[in-house]
Amino acid sequence: MDGESSLKLPLIDFSNLESGGPKWELAKAQVKEALEEFGCFEASFDKVPIEVRKGLFEALEELFNLPLETKLRNVSQKPFHGYVGQYPMAPLFESMGVDDSTIPQKVQDFTNILWPQGNPTFRVMMSGEEVRYSAGLFSIPKAGYIVKAPEELVDEQHPLLFNPFDHVQFLQFYYTEAGQKAQSALKTFCGAT
């Protein structure tokens, strides 16, 4: 069997989970395995109504259809925050990070940057090939939090591969000339020798 054709992103169902229950334990094991093997997974959660999902993707389409000069107003000192796009190595990728998105005033500030005269309601009709959107929701450690392997997972048969590191400092290094030239920016930044 061709290795490429057998590669499939894990799908994990988070519906109807109760902390400590058998489905909870199964989901925990699936998450651990998916992150160890793939570094990511697709989450399924049936409690988000289809109308909410549809509304999210319609709003994303409207957001990313803004002119480039408007999107470029969303800047951040944090790597991968603000507007990210226009990379030759990933020409179809765009991202719009919002700093402190759990604080309502920060979300309002973001909105005011992109729509200083208010957000007019409009929809763009598209023709030709259908555009596909996806929403990635990420959790990123706070600055100063040290990412490290649990001590119980490191021994002589499983040596430490990376020294403990601050995730924000790594992202800052990634965008330096040395980080961009490195075959593996993570190994260059904090690889164990």
Automatic annotation (TrEMBL):
InterPro entries: DIOX_N (IPR026992), IPNS-like_sf (IPR027443), Iron_ascorbate_oxido_reductase (IPR050231). Residues 9-85 form the Non-haem dioxygenase N-terminal domain. One of its GO terms (molecular function) is metal ion binding. Coiled coil: none annotated. The keyword Metal-binding applies. Pfam families: DIOX_N. This is 2-oxoglutarate-dependent dioxygenase AOP1.
